[in-house]
Structure formats: C-alpha cells, structure tokens
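Bench notes, afternoon.
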Amino acid sequence: MASVIPNLQGHVIESISKTISRRFDHPHETLPDTNLTFLNSVVANLRSSAAEPQEVQASVHRLCIECKKLRDQLAPDAWANCVKQIRESDLLSLVHQDPFTSRAYNKPRGYAGDAVMMDYIYGLDEGWQPPATSLLGQRIFQYTISASASAGVRARREHLAEKLDEIARSKAKPEVMAVASGHLREASMSSAVRRRRFGRFIALDADAESLAEVERSFGRYGVQCELADIRKLLAGRMDFGTLDLIYSTGLYDYLNEKTAQNLSCHLFSMLKSGGKLVLANFLPTIHDIGYMEACMDWFLVYRDRMDMMGLTKLIDQADIRDIHVSVEENQNIIFLEVTRT
C-alpha cells in the first residue's frame, strides 16, 4: 500500500485504467462456476452487534482469503465480474466504515494510497489517534492496518530510514532526494535527518498537501520541498545536480514498464559516482491483493525479482557497479538497489 504522485493519472497509469475500464464495462455474462456464498456469512458476521473484535477480524480475514483465491483462479474478466458482484452486495456499506478501506475507494486526493493512508499504517507504531468511525469501522481498521501489506509498508519505512543513516555514516554531508515523498515519514526514524547530517535533502512530490506536512515536520531539519511530477524530470526541466542517494517508495507501484524503465534510467543519470538508486515495489503474491481490488478499488502494478531487474534495462551496464535485490521480512515489498560506478 503506497503513496504516489497524483498527476501521473492520464500519463503513467493510462494503460492500467484502460484495462480496468475494459474489465468492468464488458464483464462476462456468467461466471465459470464461481461461488460467492461466503459473502452471506461475512456480511452476517459483520452486521452482528454481538460480534467480538476477534470475530470481526476473522470475518475480514476470511474475506481477504476468498477474494485472493478468486483472483488467483479466475481469468481477468471473470474476476472483474466477481468484483462487480461484491460491490453490488451489502458488503461495501460495512467494510467502508473502515477509514482505511473507504479512503482508498473514495480517493479524496484523486488517487488511492495517499500520504494520509500511509499515516494510518504508521500510526500503529507511533501510537497516533486513529480516525473517528463506528465501532465496526474501528475493528475492521485494526485488521487492515495490521494486515500483511500494511506490515510491509512499515518495514519499507524502516528499510529506507536505515539507508539514510547508512549513507550519512559513509559520507560527509551526502545529498539525497525522495521521489514521490508523501509525508516522508522515514525521516522521523533517521537519526541522520534529526542531526542535520545531509548536505541536501530534497522531497519531491506533486501533492501540495503532502509537501505542506513535510515542511511542517522536517523543514527545521533542512529538508527542501519541491512540488513537481515526474513528467518534469523526464523532460529535463528540473536540474538538481548530482546526488548520492535517490529513492522512491510507492511510485513504481503505479508505473507501466516503459515509464518505469525511462524514469529509472533518468534517476540513475542523476547519481554521483558511487551513488545509489533505491526503488520499492509490491510483490504480486501479497495476501491482501483481492480485497484491495474488490473493496478498496486499489489496483497496482506488481513486480517480482525479474521485473525489478528489468527496470535497469535502459541503463548503460558499464555504468553499474552493483545491483542488489531484496525482500522485506513480510514478503510483500521488494527492493532494487543500483550503485553507480
């Protein structure tokens, strides 16, 4: 579950939205022996005023399992038809009492996975006050922000904070840029940021509200906010000089292959000798994938190890010193780290 630059719509994720549109505009008339009767028991359990927190979470867990099973087994059009039926049932009125699920579905900033949603996830570790909602919504919220994909997002944050501290230990006053920074919450976990050990720290995002929060939280540590989308980068209209570390957390979950390869090549060209490009992406095997698509209207571009390696296709291999691919402990998010010669 990831933060992303909103102005990419119509440019970067056009192919995704067209595919989704085709699925929902022209679903199969009938499903190939698909059984959605599990919805009845899930809805009944969630409606029960006597349901204990464990029962609510068990019902949502079952819903995630069943949705993933259907998505894995069915052809895209058949899965789209399932999603249509799920959304036409009484289920959405119940699960949308969860602020996390409903915010993704309703997209108040024009896209799912915005920085506010990421703060819902981080709030579990930070002890932040959860958003106001019904009792049922609170119980579902506790499940969704604790689920495996959300755990992966928290691990991603820790991974990037470690990268920031690592480069600050290895080099005096390194220069860093976060692309599609969101609220830049990894910075609060970095001792190097708090001790102002960076020569430059650029937070680039196309969401002005997100950058306002970055300025409020980290401006005093020297973080520089830049309001822009990747089209300006790719067009060569922004010059940040060369940098020691460039990273992006949730952006690539929304990029098609061509755009992702072009952006990776461009970002790599902005690195100093010995500089690192660190990219993160959700894996296609995440447990929550069916629930995200059916109940949250949250469609991502998933990548495995080979796909991540493919992001370096347009980079001159002679310029690459090292490539490292790793997966965080929850097996939901994969990282690509490319070092320049």
